[in-house]
Amino acid sequence: MSDVYAARRGLLRERCGAAGNSAALITRPANVRYLAGASPLGAVLLVGPADDELFCAGAPTGEADEGRLDERLKVSLLSGPGADPAVAAADRAAAARADFLAVEEHHLTVARHRAVSSVAPRLRLADLGTAVEQQRLVKDEEEIACLRIAAEIADQALGELLESILVGRTERHLALELERRLVDHGADGPAFPTSVGTGPHSGRSRHRPSDRRVEEGDFLSVCLGANYRGYRCEIGRTFVIGTTPADWQIELYDLVFAAQRAGREALVPGAAYRDVDHAARSVLDSAGHGEALAGCMGHGVGLEIDEDPQLAPTAMGKLDACVPVTVEPGVHLPGRGGVRIDDTLVVRPEADGGPELLTITTKELLAL
After folding, report:
1. Which of 52, 90, 153, 239 could cross-link to 185 by cystine, CB 3.0-4.6 Å?
2. Which residues 6+ apart lie within 8 Å of 70 measured at CB?
3. Which residue, among 45, 33, 131, 60, has the nearest Cα to 93 in the 3D structure?
4. pLDDT digit string (tens) for 60-76?
C-alpha cells in the first residue's frame, strides 16, 4: 500500500503545484488517513515541498481505529506539551522555503488558522478547498474490497438478529446487540450509531433507540453499518413483527421499495446527482409524501459514512464509475410508523453489469 499512498500524495502535490502552492497542510482526519494510511489522534500531514511528513503528538499505535501508517512516510513527534502539529508543520514548510501553503480552511478553526499564520509570517496561506475529498470520490478496487467486506459483516449481523426472538425487547437492546455482532464478525466497530425504530418510531431517519419494546404488528426499521479498516458501509431494512402485514403496511412498503429501486436503477456513470435523487423522490412525491422527505436520497461512503457525492435536489455534479453511494428513501407517518430501505452500491457501467449491490440482505417484506 505504500506505493498507493505515495501516488495519492503525488497527485495532490501536482494539483497544488498547478495552483501555485508549494505545499499542502492536511488536517482533516479522514484526509490524513487517505494520504498517509493512518490518522493518529490530532495528527496532520505536510505534503511537500521537499518530503512528505506526518506530525503528531504521540507515536502511532497501529491500532485499527488509526489505520496502518505508510512505512516510508517520515514521522515527527512533538516533544512539548500542548504543541500543535499544524503549527509545527507550517514551521517546517517555511524552513523548506515554501512560498505558499494550501490549508483546509473548511476544517481549520479560526484560532488555529491564526496560529499557523503567525508561526511563519512570510508563508502565504491559500485555501486547498475540498481537493482531497474530491480525490477520494472515485475508489480503487482495494478500497471497494474493504467496503464489500464491511457490507458482508453488516449483512451477517442483521441476518443473525432476524433469527432471534424480537417481541418484548427494547430498541436500545437490539441496537447494542447489532453493534456487538458487527465486532464479532470482524468490524473495527459500527460505522455510525445503529438506529432501531419500532412501531411509531419506525421509518425515522437516524432515530436514536429508546426503551420502547417491540410489539406484535409493529414495523421494525433498522439502519446499521460496519467500519472495516476505516471504510464504512450502510444498510437499512424494515420488517413487520409477528403477524401478517396490514394492508397499509404492504402499501407503504411497496411504495418505498419502488422508490428505492428507481434510485438504484439511476446509478449510471454520467448521471447527475440530482437526477438520481429525482428518480427516487418522484415516486414518493407522486403518492403524496413529498413534504416529509429527507433532504437527499443518498450520499457517498468511504472513510466517512456521509461524504461526497450528495444525491440531493440541488446537488451539482455527475457520477463517475467506482463511486460508492447509498440509496435510502423512506416515509414516516406520524403516530403510525414507516419504512426505510437503504443499500450501499458501487456505480458501474452497464457493460460491467450496472451498479454493484454490496448490501444483499433481502428486501422482501418479512414477518418476523
Report:
1. 153
2. 1, 2, 5, 6, 36, 37, 38
3. 45
4. 888 888 999 999 999 99
